[in-house]
Task: structure prediction
Amino acid sequence: MPIDQAVIAAHEAFIAGRNGGCRAFFRFQDLTGVNLMKRKLDGIEFIGCDLKDSSFALASLVTASFYCSSLKGADLRGSDLSRADLRGAILRGADLYRSNLDGADFRKAVLYKDERDKEFKQNDWVQDLEDGRDGAVDFRDCSLRGARLSSAKLKGADFSGAMMEGADLHQADLRDANFKGAVLTGADMKGARLDGANLDNVVRDPAQAALARASDLMKLLEQSDLYTQSRGEQGRRAVFEGEDLRVLGRACQGKGLIGANMRGVCAVGMDFSGASFIGANFTGADLRGANFTGANLKGVTFRDCNLNHAIMQGADLRSFTGSTGRVFHPSFEGASLHAARFEGARMDHELLAAAIGPVQAYENLTPAQGEEPAKAS
Result:
């Protein structure tokens, strides 16, 4: 069914604070196949609506409500659904690839179809659940930090590579789900059904062996900071190769780590803001969700790193010339940069494009506001 575009335009005006704006809400409507791709729809409400096969790709849907609505087969790729209300929503076959679902609520829900009716009725679509992999929900590489999925029915869902720190998954039906490479630190999975689930290479809370290394790693960090501050006259360069740096908490914030060996480190979600990493080597590191805001990253090697959802806003990613006259360029060759944020970063866009491809480079340099990525010329 077509949707009234004037209502959508008025909602966008409401979000922008323009005259004539009005918040949009839809109740129990058949909106199958609607196309709202790339629209700014923060706070919009769809209550008990049929949105089967709809498209919300690249849309901004922050705090939007899809309460007890059907999103079967919907295209939600790259959308921002942070803090969205998805309670009781049916997502079978929905494509949420690389969307932002931080703080979203997926818990079970029931719905008064007629608020004047005393009988408590459950939405017809809530009962329409299949047992099997057909139409499983695609959450690959999504950000689901703090998402509430308790008691959700997500059998066969694909969470591979997803960021799920602090997610509530207790009592969820996750049979045959794929969590390969997902970040599950702090996730509550008590009582969840995980029969047949793939948990290969998941990132959990730091192991005891890593925690026991915290004191030694802190000393290395202090020596590295001294080396940086004294211009190499004191201290020494850090060698953190293969270490789980999460045990350092926020200690790396603003520290000097010039020329550090960071190969293969696990630094998921770490705060490196304001730190100096000139000439450092992060080859093969897991840096998903790491915060490099305002960091000095001149000449840093990020070859083969996982930088999905990393924040590099305002970072210095230019080349630098060493004491011997050699020029060191930052390298992103082979790196994964989905949803990485580069707004305000100082960098050579052509070098980035050469390393990861022009289209991907320009997509990653564009703010994730539901706008169409700029095309390389």
Summary: Helices lie at 5-16, 208-212, 214-229, 349-356, 358-364. Confidence is low (pLDDT under 50) at residues 112-134, 366-377.
